[in-house]
Amino acid sequence: MILIAESGSTKTDWVLIDESNKKHYFKTIGFNPFFHTTDFIISTISLNKDLIAFSKAITKLYFYGAGCSSEKMNNVVLSALKSLFPNAYSTVDHDLKACALATYEGVPSISCILGTGSNSCFFDGKTIREEVPAIAYVLGDEGSGAFYGKQLLKDYLYNRLPIEIKNDLETKWEISKDKIFDNVYMKPHANVYLASFMKFISTFKDHPYVITMVKEGMDEFVKTHVCCYPESKNVKAHFIGSISKIYEKELKYAADKNGIILGNIIRKPVENLVDYHLRQLQLI
Fold this sequence. Notes:
Elements lengths: L1 E6 L3 E7 L5 E7 L8 H9 L2 H4 L7 E6 L5 H14 L4 E6 H9 L5 E6 L3 E6 L4 E2 L6 H4 L5 H13 L5 H11 L3 H10 L3 H6 L2 H5 L5 H18 L10 E5 L1 H5 L1 H10 L3 E6 L3 H11 L4
Parallel strand pairs: 1-4, 4-5, 6-9, 9-10
Antiparallel strand pairs: 1-2, 2-3, 6-7, 7-8
């Protein structure tokens, strides 16, 4: 059996392919070795009894995750996977590689992630190249869920929100300065907390405030993470992640404004990853 996982900072999509090539789907929270220990990953995955029921039968495991960008960070996740799936040949790689593999069409292109965080790379089919680093939610993550959540809360605290959005936020989310400060500065996983406000923001997706905010964020992402590549005007820029799909219109605006050729927009790349690995294993 083969297990493939695509993990962002918020959630992980797992796909198990059994001996008859039937697919089984599972979900857990996202795992990022910058924020999660090996023991935490083991205990959390163990709670998914349906997935763990297959643990001894899995022979190959491919995990792609946010924060899995060095041998040290990868080993945090790899140690957990080896403990949970002892009979599997397991590999851990960056979510950026998953993005590149999931969007590749046989010609060089730029692959971008817009989810809880954001990132990009250039992929020619063999080599992944980054021009600028991902500097996470405090300093960067332009165009991501955490980026927009931070903007929303900043505007709320500075009393800059349109009154109808402010009232709805206070009523439905019972928000306050103390709650915001506690979640952002005192508790772990502030990036996930900030990105969680995308559910609220999406309820106002046709409001001029949200349209303007998202357009500006998309424009900032494209300028910083797409236009940085010398090839940016000559190759397609593909996108994965829920933010890019939900706000496709605003993304197209930013691409057109900056002379970028917009390619595929894929909400969940895990199916494309499954197809890639099945082709590599000559199972399809």
